[in-house]
Write a structure and sequence with these properties.
Layout: H1 5-28, H2 39-62, H3 68-76, H4 85-106, H5 108-113, H6 117-124, H7 133-154, E1 158-161, E2 164-167, H8 176-190, H9 200-211, H10 227-246
Helix pairs in contact: 1-2, 1-4, 1-6, 2-8, 3-4, 3-7, 3-10, 4-9, 7-8, 7-10, 9-10
């Protein structure tokens, strides 16, 4: 089967959200087996391994960006074609929405049992521990900067897309585990402020899915939603620029 980079990014990001949103739902929703089981530790570890799974799936085909901020950072660093940026971001957004919906369906009975809307929304998308847009934005910029700069340092030298070898393009399967570890440590070290979205598609796609759910008291918190979009894009671009200047 001839899988295109677009489909690979879509599938990889879908798996990322199934597993990432899944762990948050498992430890926070009512009457799950995992309810209340040391949630932050489980969430950070599981998100790291969710990234590992997504990168392992898509790495040899698309480079497994799975994140618009990574795509932008690689392009700014001169390691990825600007012409491919829009299609990658679209694939990542669709995958994030699909993965979020599938996770919701898997836990639908527990969503029905859960009435605290802030907790329900928090299984889909991020929110600040203390609402201070300036500091929240900085936290997302910094966390994504760390992610993208580390990804650029780990990046596989070459990848073959549709018969063309592109240098310093993306993450192969061997690099999946180091990237997962980077995400884990970002969550444990820098995630306490905003919940470490560090990925615009990962936050916006599920937030959109949540906004479409038939829940009476839903509150997507659109007034905050620009933080986990703008912050990661800025952090990714800055990481790409620094890497370009020193490489």
């Amino acid at each position: 089967m001839n899988v295109t980079p677009f489909i690979a990014e879509l599938i990889g990001t879908t798996f990322l959200l199934i597993l990432g949103q899944g762990v948050v739902a498992n430890v926070n929703l009512k009457k799950t087996i995992g309810e209340g089981q040391n949630p932050w530790l489980l969430i950070t570890i599981a998100w790291g391994f969710a990234v590992f799974v997504g990168v392992f799936i898509a790495g040899s085909i698309s480079g497994a960006h799975l994140n618009p901020a990574v795509t932008l950072g690689l392009a700014v660093a001169g390691k990825f074609s600007w012409n491919m940026v829009p299609s990658y971001i679209l694939a990542q957004l669709i995958g994030a929405m699909l993965g979020s919906w599938l996770s919701y369906v898997a836990y639908i009975d527990h969503y029905r049992e859960s009435i605290e809307e802030d907790i329900v929304r928090g299984t889909f998308c991020t929110g600040p521990a203390i609402r201070n847009f300036k500091n929240n934005l900085f936290a997302e910029v910094l966390g994504t900067f760390v992610l993208v700069f580390c990804a650029l340092c780990i990046v596989t030298p070459n990848i073959n897309i549709e018969g063309v070898v592109i240098q310093n393009f993306g993450l192969g399967s061997i690099d999946a585990l180091p990237i997962g570890i980077v995400v884990m440590v970002i969550g444990m070290s820098l995630g306490g402020n905003t919940g470490f979205a560090i990925n615009p598609a990962r936050d916006f796609g599920p937030r959109l899915i949540y906004s479409l759910l038939p829940r009476k008291n839903k509150n997507p918190d659109w007034s905050y939603s620009w933080i986990p979009i703008l912050g990661p894009f800025v952090g990714g671009a800055l990481a790409g620029l620094l890497y370009f200047l020193i490489s």
